[in-house]
């Protein structure tokens, strides 16, 4: 049985009212805790509700939710453990969908670095449309992750560290005036935080500097 969970991070608009009118499971933070903290709340609830596959999608209409069954199907068939929606099938398509040039450059650069270091071949590593098997969420110590935007990259590196299989499918890029987006300064901080997490992972693997992000929950 499918269930939609929405966590409102202390917004001041009508998010909660609209979500409740649609019959969604609504969780609410009493203060703004951050992007990563929002996901943590949702994942805890999804696991408590017995979810076998958990899909995370940004609720700003930037991603086409119709693709969700394709992401989950790869997990159901035991082909992948984590799936992403890839917005960068071609540069022309990404720009046509409204992706800002500086975001495209950051996306391509960081995706290349992450793929190279982790030995992956993902189309992009910065998608806000993801699906996880229950086993991934029960294994990866995501509770230790940042409450900020780098949470997403920590999850990818952790999934790779614990040997899970990652894949992606194309989704159209769709940036509209009401789509949420961090500014250039926040993007720069996010990029540097991503590179720092990669360095911490390398040092952990080399047994130079242990990092709690890569120690299993049962360890």
What keyword list fits this structure?
219 residues; 6 strands; globular; Spore Coat Polysaccharide Biosynthesis Protein SpsA, Chain A; 4-stranded mixed beta sheet; alpha/beta
Give an overview in words.
It is built from 8 helices and 6 strands; from the N terminus they run βαβαβαβααβααβα. The longest helix is centred in the C-terminal third of the chain and has 22 residues. Helices cover 42% and strands 13% of the residues. The protein is α/β, with parallel strands linked by helices and 219 residues long. Strand 1, helix 1 and strand 2 form a beta-alpha-beta unit. A 4-stranded mixed beta sheet has the order 3-5-4-6, with helices on both faces. The protein has a two-stranded parallel sheet with strand order 1-2. The protein is globular.
How many domains would you count in the coordinates? 1
**Distance between the amino and carboxyl termini:** 33 Å
Structural class: alpha/beta
Query: CATH fold name, please?
Result: Spore Coat Polysaccharide Biosynthesis Protein SpsA, Chain A
Q: What would CATH call the class?
A: Alpha Beta
- CATH architecture term: Alpha-Beta Complex
**Low-pLDDT runs:** none
**Average pLDDT taken over every residue:** 95
Q: Give the helix proportion (percent range).
A: 40-55%
The SSE string, one letter per element, is EHEHEHEHHEHHEH
Number of helices: 8
User: Overall 3D geometry?
Assistant: globular
Residue fraction in strands? 5-15%
Number of strands: 6
The radius of gyration computed from the alpha-carbon positions, rounded to a whole number of angstroms, is 17 Å
Assigned CATH superfamily: Spore Coat Polysaccharide Biosynthesis Protein SpsA, Chain A
């Amino acid at each position: 049985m499918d269930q939609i969970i929405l966590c409102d991070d202390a917004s001041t608009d009508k998010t909660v009212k609209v979500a409740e009118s649609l019959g969604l499971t609504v969780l609410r933070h009493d203060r703004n805790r951050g992007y990563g903290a929002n996901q943590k709340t949702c994942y805890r609830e999804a696991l408590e509700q017995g979810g076998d596959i958990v899909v995370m999608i940004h609720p700003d209409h930037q991603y086409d939710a119709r693709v969700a069954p394709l992401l989950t199907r790869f997990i159901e068939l035991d082909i992948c453990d984590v799936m992403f929606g890839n917005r960068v099938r071609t540069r022309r398509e990404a720009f046509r969908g409204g992706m800002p040039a500086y975001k495209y450059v950051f996306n391509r650069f960081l995706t290349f670095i992450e793929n190279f270091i982790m030995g992956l071949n993902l189309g992009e590593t910065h998608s806000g449309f993801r699906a996880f098997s229950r086993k991934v969420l029960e294994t990866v110590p995501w509770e230790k992750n940042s409450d900020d935007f780098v949470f997403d990259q920590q999850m990818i590196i952790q999934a790779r560290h614990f040997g899970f299989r990652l894949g992606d499918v194309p989704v159209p890029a769709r940036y509209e005036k009401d789509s949420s987006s961090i500014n250039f300064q926040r993007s720069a901080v996010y990029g540097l935080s991503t590179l720092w997490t990669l360095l911490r992972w390398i040092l952990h693997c080399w047994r130079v500097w242990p990092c709690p992000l890569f120690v299993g929950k049962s360890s």
